[in-house]
Amino acid sequence: MLKNRFKKKNDEKSKLETLKSMGFPVEEARHALAACDNDLERASNFLLGGSSTNNNSSNTTNTTNNSGRGTSNYREEETEEQQLQRIMAESLATEEQRKAAAGTAGTTTTVATRKPASAAAIKAGQAAAARAENASRRYGANGKLLAKKKTTTKTKEATSSSTKASQSQLINSTSMSTSIGGLKIDNTVNYNNSNFNSNNNNNNKIKQAVLKSHPKVKMPTQMKDKSKEEQILRCTKRIAPHPLAVDTLLRAFMFIRQNPNEEKYRKIDRTTAGFQSALEGKPGVMDLLSAMNFIRSNGDSGNYSNISNNNQRYIILERARVDMALLYLGISALEEVRKSEEYLAAKQSIQFEKELNRIKNGEGSDSATSEEDEILKRAEYISKLPTEPSGGAGALMQISLGANHKIMRKFDGDDILLDVIHFIGGHGSAIPEKILSREWCLVDLNQYPSVVLDTELFRNKTLQFIGCWPSGKLSLQPSSSEWREGKEIGERVDVGGSRGLGAAPSSL
């Protein structure tokens, strides 16, 4: 029994010292432990809420006088915290009465206020805070301390601004929900959407953000904000790879310049087959027409709209909006485009596709060639072909005849390039002659960049020699002016490539 009492006393003393080291007065710590059944955690939490204790303890006399009254109903409604405060106040009052009766000098009936924390307590608190901060940055068995990340000024500013923005948004959302009650969620969303759906505000914010983060970067001017001259020149260059669109617009502008008063030349119907095939969907066409002062219309006078409105059927140029200077500029720009390499290459490709389709459909190079003669010539080419390897043997040759037609056949490695040309002749009797005369050419797609095969030099060379083993990809294309004239194109026009066992070297 004596041992337990001694142990309990030591336990109370250690807890009292703990509360004292935390900066609490000894008297308040002792009474808090007594009121909390010697529970250190509850006592410390109670002492931390000292404001309510002072208020209760300042009325010690009233509390003592009222403690004997029958207030059972009132105490039943008290919370646990209020009960602890009342018990502590009663304990302090009893202690003060005992000291007064014993004649203790210097004591008063008022409760002592909390003393300022000592220097030791302040240092202990700072050390505990430092340990808590460093605990999250330790790792491993040795408890190494990670380097603390430095917070830059820009990061602080960005964090502060984002925090303020979120707080502002929260305040706005709260005010909306308060004013409209049960519909706060829906209306709050609508309120935010009305702010973010403003395109002008968003564009300005994005532009300001870019200028702030990249002050030396200049935002490019939109096409609609450029001068008419620059718009026309830029748009005509974009149309260059589409020869039919260039020719159609050039012809239309010339008719308008020659007959500005004729409405039929200043009106374009978007539903016609000519517009659909030549102008519809071609990049730069609508921008060029807009730069030339064309507008949209349904055909009714006065019912006009912007060129970007796809609901209108007609694209017209009003007589009052005809600008001869713009017409001359547009015509001259399109004429310059017709001299560009892009236009000429695209024009040649269109003509090549037309001629190739004509030959594949059974019409020979001579218009007088009959269908029966074409069949006999193709059969003659096919009869010259070697036997096709069976199973998985041989090299697979893939030949593209135009943009949408591909033929395939297997050849042995010792078959020659002329055999491939005879195979192509079985699909059009006029094709081999055009290849050997350099009007058209075979391009080796296995090489990068692609290489034009010199059929005159390698017509009797094996597929293995020219690099088309164990497979080959060739494309029939129109010859450039340099190739027609016998000039070499690229670094290796004389060799197909170095592929496969025993293939020719990259250069001879």
Describe it:
The chain is an alpha+beta fold. Strands 8-7-11-9-10 form a 5-stranded mixed beta sheet. The chain has a 4-stranded antiparallel beta sheet with strand order 3-6-4-5, with no helix packed on it. Strand 9 and strand 10 form a beta hairpin. Helix content is 53%, strand content 8%. Helix 4 crosses helix 7 (80-101), helix 9 crosses helix 10 and helix 12 (228-239) packs parallel to helix 16 (324-337). Residues 51-76, 104-113, 169-197 and 490-508 have low confidence and may be disordered. It contains 23 helices and 11 strands. The N and C termini lie far apart (113 Å).
Short account of what is shown:
The protein has 508 residues and is α+β, with helices and mostly antiparallel strands.
Beta-strand content estimate: 5-15%
Report the total helices. 23
Shape: elongated
What is the share of helical residues? 40-55%
Give me some keywords for this one:
508 residues, alpha+beta, 5-stranded mixed β-sheet, 4-stranded antiparallel β-sheet, 11 strands, 53% helix, disordered C terminus
Please write out the topology:
Elements: H1 2-21, H2 26-35, H3 40-48, H4 50-57, H5 60-66, H6 72-76, H7 80-101, H8 119-135, E1 138-139, E2 144-145, H9 153-180, H10 184-196, H11 199-213, H12 228-239, H13 243-258, E3 267-269, H14 273-278, H15 285-291, E4 295-297, E5 304-305, E6 314-316, H16 324-337, H17 341-360, H18 371-383, E7 395-401, E8 406-411, H19 417-425, H20 431-436, E9 440-444, E10 451-452, H21 455-458, H22 463-466, E11 471-478, H23 481-484
Parallel strand pairs: 7-11
Antiparallel strand pairs: 1-2, 3-6, 4-5, 4-6, 7-8, 9-10, 9-11
